[in-house]
Amino acid sequence: MNLFFKNSAATRSIWFLKAICTDGSPLSAARCYSTKLAPATATAQKTSSTGSNAPTERKSIIPPNYRYVYQEFLPDPKVEWRNSVREKLERKDMLDRRANIDIPEFYVGSVVAVTSSDPHAENKTARFVGICILREKCGLRARFILRNVIDHQGIEISYDLYDPTLQKIEVLRLEKRLDDNLLYLRDALDEYSTFDVNMEPEILPEGSPVPINDVKVVLKPRPWYARWERHNLQGVANIDEHTNERRRRKAELVAKPWEKYDLMQEYRRTIPEEEQKEIFTEIYSQLHSLELARKKMKRKRTFVKPTKLA
């Protein structure tokens, strides 16, 4: 008797499950099928509304000129000198320093005025105006060299970009030159390195590209600071006049014209683009806020308050 009831209960259970799982039953859609979207349906919703199967990529908000304007934020490409923790801490210190002093955009060839603390000066400050002939190194060790000829004497001063003794950095003339460094101005005529210490700043319209000065300097006769005939310079006009046949042959022997085709050497000299985006994404928000504050102050300086007519 008990066995009969057990078999009947099992039969009724099986019949009930078949009934609710039948395609025509209203309970079948709610109980026997998953409510999750199929993988194909989820992928179709991610595609663009135009019907293309390619996923849409987000555009980068980082301006492409950041790698040139803020080149000191990029670490040294040499692998043996890399340290991710030190680089991150240095970037934080550099941003804190930029919050206290305005470090404008300038390049090799720009005319810059630097005001720094000097305990031996009369007003405890010293101001020097000169053309930037070199920018090198990275991080907190980034530095630049200014050159000017005063009283027929060439003077060069090297500044650390993030030196706490710097009080003010002004760009009097923003421009670039044809070469990456202008160390050959040491052997050029004085007129190419002479600038007025009371020079007024030349303000470019906002959003205009940085002009490139294609002037070619004239070198003095030898001896020179370096063998400039071996450097493939674009900004020197008379380098062949002071180069004889023997020096020209030696320059051809040590020349390496194939290096411009060496992709691996170029890769080792630079930071990969993916890593650059990662670094600038980290510091973009603070740099952007500093840029907006600088533009606001620039507009205030350029605004001339109208005088009241009599």
Notes on the protein architecture:
The structure is a single chain. It is built from 8 helices and 5 strands. Strands 4-3-2-1-5 form a 5-stranded antiparallel β-sheet, with no helix packed on it. A hairpin with a 7-residue loop joins strand 1 and strand 2. The chain has a single domain, classed as SH3 type barrels, CATH 2.30.30. The N and C termini lie far apart (123 Å). It is of the alpha+beta class and 310 residues long. It has helices at residues 2-20, 28-31, 39-46, 66-69, 84-98, 245-254, 263-269, 273-302, and strands at 111-117, 125-136, 143-150, 153-160, 166-173. The chain is globular and about 55 Å long.
Instruction: Provide the β-strand percentage band.
Output: 5-15%
Based on CA atoms alone, the radius of gyration comes out at 34 Å
Backbone shape: globular
**CATH class identity:** Mainly Beta
Question: What's the order of the H and E elements?
Answer: HHHHHEEEEEHHH
Keywords: Mitochondrion, Ribonucleoprotein, Ribosomal protein, Transit peptide
Protein name: Large ribosomal subunit protein bL19m
Family: Belongs to the bacterial ribosomal protein bL19 family.
Subcellular location: Mitochondrion
